Amino acid sequence: MSDAIPKVFLVDDHRLFLAGVRTELGDRFEIVGQASEVDEAVAGIRAAQPDVVLLDVHMPGGGGRAVLEAVLAGEPAAGARPVRFLALSVSDAPEDVIAVVRAGARGYVTKTIEPDALADAIQRVAGGDAVFSPRLAGFVLDAFSGETNPPGDPDLDQLTAREREVLRLIARGYAYKEIAKELFISVKTVETHVSAVLRKLQLSNRSELTRWATERRLV
């Protein structure tokens, strides 16, 4: 990587969050594009040829993993440098971290990261380093060393990634409004996810859901 300012492409389905990231990073990097859906992101990344893609994990149409797989599977433009991906998500779930790393991401940080630390992470990924939030690095090391290979849970497997996020926050005692703020979604969407989780797990109320999550050490 030369001393040139890295070109960064932003992918996130929350436009207010995108605007905030662009404001924080715009004077440090060359922002060459943004997208909020998978197909739009894939096309935009191929056209812009950024150095780093700052990638949300959960989006409509397949999420960040789908973007990664589509871009990395395509033929690179002649003479183009490889595009590197840094996942930026509200989720700190091991399965989310491991999935995007296996798909080709060079790093994974959560949206609680400070702007200066995020800028440093982007710079390091642009230079070829792998970057992870401290507690997430352990998930990656365990997964790729073969030390952790938990058996599948058929009940948990039927939940979507977003439903698992909502489940964990409910079990931790978050109110619906707090979950909506944490995940950048509406309270109505939270209610929809909770109803889906209760139905899929055949549970009746929040107390049963919390007990179910606690027994499986998901909290």
Task: Please tell me about this protein's structure.
The protein is an alpha/beta fold. The protein is 53% helix and 12% strand. The chain contains eleven helices and six strands. It has a six-stranded parallel beta sheet, with helices on both faces. Helix 2 (38-48) packs parallel to helix 3, helix 4 (94-103) packs across helix 6 (134-145) and helix 8 crosses helix 11. The radius of gyration is 18 Å and the shape is elongated. It starts with 6 loop residues before the first strand and ends with a helix. The model is unreliable at 147-151 (pLDDT under 50).
Feature tags:
6 strands, elongated, 219 residues, 11 helices, single chain, alpha/beta
Largest sheet: 6 strands, parallel
Give the radius of gyration: 18 Å
Mean pLDDT reading: 83
Range of strand content: 5-15%
The strands making up the biggest β-sheet line up spatially as 2-1-3-4-5-6
Shape: elongated
Tell me the span between the first and last alpha carbons: 41 Å
Helix content: 40-55%
Unreliable residue stretches: 147-151
Task: Provide a brief overview of the structure.
With 219 residues, the protein is of the alpha/beta class. The chain is 53% helix and 12% strand.
Secondary-structure blueprint:
Blueprint: E1 7-11, H1 15-25, E2 30-35, H2 38-48, E3 52-55, H3 63-73, E4 84-89, H4 94-103, E5 107-110, H5 115-126, E6 131-132, H6 134-145, H7 154-157, H8 161-171, H9 176-183, H10 187-201, H11 206-215
Parallel strand pairs: 1-2, 1-3, 3-4, 4-5, 5-6
Helix pairs in contact: 2-3, 4-6, 8-10, 8-11, 9-10
